[in-house]
């Protein structure tokens, strides 16, 4: 038969493995559901997009895709504070390095599952030559009344 020490080790391993499998499969399902919403679509003027910290998103994706041997910590609630300074978007942030633009659907799913934020919503605008883009940095106008 199997000695008591081995049975104890196996039992402990099984508890840890079962817990990992439950956590991981839920996260994998969330990731798959989120990925389905992440398809390239045409930008429509007025649509909402949300900035999310690339650091947080990368950690979440790593957490969802971890293998049994990995030990990746949950990223916790969405944390966009690395994008904000003095209650405004930091200057000179770079798309796909500092932040990622998410569609409204993608943001709503992550926000529902993890909470956190703050949400940083931006709209699609029309620029010259019928070119549409997400206006990450809002144009500020100063009006002088004389």
Task: Tell me about this structure.
The chain has 146 residues and is an alpha+beta fold. It has three helices and eight strands, in the order αβαββββαβββ. Strand 3 and strand 4 form a beta hairpin. The longest helix has 34 residues. The radius of gyration is 21 Å and the shape is globular.
Give me the secondary-structure topology.
Blueprint: H1 4-37, E1 48-53, H2 54-65, E2 78-79, E3 84-85, E4 88-89, E5 99-103, H3 104-114, E6 116-117, E7 120-127, E8 131-134
Parallel strand pairs: 2-6
Antiparallel strand pairs: 1-5, 1-7, 3-4, 7-8
The number of helical segments is 3
Low-confidence stretches: 13-22
Which structural category do the helix and sheet elements fall into?
alpha+beta
Shape: globular
Arrangement of strands in the largest sheet: 5-1-7-8
Radius of gyration: 21 Å
Terminus-to-terminus distance: 95 Å
Q: Work out the helicity level.
A: 25-40%
Please provide the ordered H/E string of secondary-structure elements: HEHEEEEHEEE
